[in-house]
């Protein structure tokens, strides 16, 4: 009955979100609260156009015989695949909520492990198959399944994943989802005490409560306790045979939540720009597929939303020190790039906020680099307005003058296509 009531509340929340979407689009031009059915638009062609995501590139290398995946024990091809995709084992986060295509296999004693980098997320369930969500810079996230075959691993594209991963919750593009108990979408704006219902969490949050490490049935009964906090590892919590790590690192979880929503926003602003350009240049077909006739959101409005998120505006504050458990923090910070003073957008704070210099490292990602010129130009213009101090708003109250100067200095040393106006004075 508890599970039924929970699903009923979740369904009502989804229906309310759908019912208000059209109004939200008209009032605010919001990317994250709207849905536009452009998946088959000629400017997007998600299902039919060639893709260039990391998994498709790996598949081509495998077909040419340049790379061979090897199987190893209960996890099969997982370790080999992560190495081929440059996804660190330290990024492992573990979820036992049953909201995956492999939900029949997922329990608290047989949870789903996820691994990620800037472009790829890999999922594995013991006794199941490997799932891959791989970001194409133009189309959105492409979904794959990697299953054992008689000769080698069999790779299949899985567009059926779009039944969940193409929705209002993914900003209206084929994208990523992060959920928690009674939270249909989680990002860095959600307070820590509302996060990680249905997830394992290792590391330390100090005195900050969260919903991790507790059966969702017990959460529904209000039986969460402090005994679930500050676990150093998953040892002794369930049989971890076959898992590549005994951690579900709290820092990795926080980075994952930030990144997944930003990937969706960047994909969506790219879609908006591509459709708008096709209509301006008359390259769009005279008769577009049914449901694709929505008008693009003004690029300035779209860029403002993206920039606000990239600058962590509205980020939920931390009330204590966050400490990871797997070495993810150290591995992540080592990636750089670094400016001449040794600073990087990948360096963490983890006392007041997630990042020491609050501009997303995803500005270096292939997804950002592959944005249409109109989208990237609008993002840079809005970013400069905020960082230069010309855009004054309480929304940016936590962004100090020192923060803004440091971010600009880092960008000037590390970004290859930064507009010249970033050299102007900052006030």
Point out poorly predicted stretches. Answer: 1-28
Strand content: 5-15%
Instruction: Quote the average pLDDT.
Output: 90
Q: Strands of the largest sheet, in order across it?
A: 6-5-4-3-2-1-7
Rg over CA atoms, rounded to whole Å, is: 21 Å
What global shape is seen? globular
First and last CA, distance = 58 Å
**Strand segment count:** 7
Number of helices: 11
Q: State the major sheet.
A: 7 strands, antiparallel
Can you write the helix and strand succession as a string?
HHHEEEEEEHEHHHHHHH
Query: Approximately how much helix is present in the residues?
Result: 25-40%
| Quaternary structure type | single chain
Given the helix and strand composition, which structural class is it?
Answer: alpha+beta
Can you walk me through this structure?
The protein has 427 residues and is α+β, with helices and mostly antiparallel strands. The chain has a domain at 256-423. It has helices at 2-28, 54-63, 78-85, 162-165, 216-220, 250-280, 299-310, 328-333, 366-369, 373-388, 401-414; strands at 93-95, 112-116, 120-125, 130-136, 140-147, 154-157, 199-200. A seven-stranded antiparallel sheet has the order 6-5-4-3-2-1-7, sandwiched between helices. A hairpin with a 3-residue loop joins strand 4 (130-136) and strand 5 (140-147). Helix 7 crosses helix 10 (373-388). It is globular, with a radius of gyration of 21 Å. The model is unreliable at 1-28 (pLDDT under 50).
């Amino acid at each position: 009955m508890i599970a039924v009531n929970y699903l009923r509340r979740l369904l009502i929340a989804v229906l309310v979100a759908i019912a208000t979407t059209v109004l939200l689009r008209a009032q605010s031009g919001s990317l994250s609260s709207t849905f536009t059915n452009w998946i088959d638009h000629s400017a997007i062609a998600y299902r039919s156009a060639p893709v260039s995501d990391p998994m498709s590139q790996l598949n081509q290398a495998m077909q040419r015989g340049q790379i061979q995946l090897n199987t190893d024990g209960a996890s099969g091809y997982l370790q080999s695949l992560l190495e081929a995709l440059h996804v660190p084992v330290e990024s492992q986060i573990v979820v036992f909520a049953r909201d995956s295509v492999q939900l029949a296999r997922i329990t608290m004693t047989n949870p789903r492990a996820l691994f990620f980098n800037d472009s790829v997320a890999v999922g594995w369930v013991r006794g199941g198959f490997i799932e891959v969500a791989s970001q194409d810079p133009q189309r959105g996230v492409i979904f794959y399944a990697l299953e054992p075959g008689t000769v080698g691993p069999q790779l299949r594209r899985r567009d059926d994943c779009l039944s969940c991963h193409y929705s209002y919750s993914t900003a209206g593009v084929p994208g990523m989802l992060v959920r928690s108990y009674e939270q249909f979408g989680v990002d860095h704006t959600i307070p820590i005490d509302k996060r990680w219902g249905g997830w394992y969490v290792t590391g330390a949050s100090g005195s900050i409560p969260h919903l991790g490490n507790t059966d969702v049935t017990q959460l529904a009964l209000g039986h969460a306790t402090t005994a679930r906090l500050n676990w150093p590892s998953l040892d002794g919590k369930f049989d971890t045979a076959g898992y590549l790590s005994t951690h579900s690192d709290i820092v990795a979880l926080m980075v994952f939540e930030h990144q997944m929503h930003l990937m969706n926003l960047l994909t969506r602003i790219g879609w908006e720009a591509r459709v708008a350009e096709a209509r301006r240049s008359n390259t769009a077909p005279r008769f577009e597929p049914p449901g694709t006739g929505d008008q693009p959101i003004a690029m300035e409005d779209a860029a403002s939303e993206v920039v606000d998120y990239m600058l962590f505006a509205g980020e939920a504050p931390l009330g204590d020190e966050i400490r990871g458990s797997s070495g993810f923090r150290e591995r992540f910070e080592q990636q750089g790039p670094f400016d001449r003073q040794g600073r990087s957008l990948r360096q963490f704070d983890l006392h007041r906020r997630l990042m020491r210099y609050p501009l997303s490292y995803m500005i270096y990602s292939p997804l950002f680099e592959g944005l249409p010129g109109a989208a990237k130009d609008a993002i840079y213009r809005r970013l400069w307005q905020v960082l230069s101090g010309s855009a004054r708003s309480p929304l940016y109250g936590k962004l100090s003058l020192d923060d803004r100067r440091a971010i600009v200095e880092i960008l000037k040393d590390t970004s290859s296509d930064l507009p010249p106006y970033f050299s102007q004075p900052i006030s």
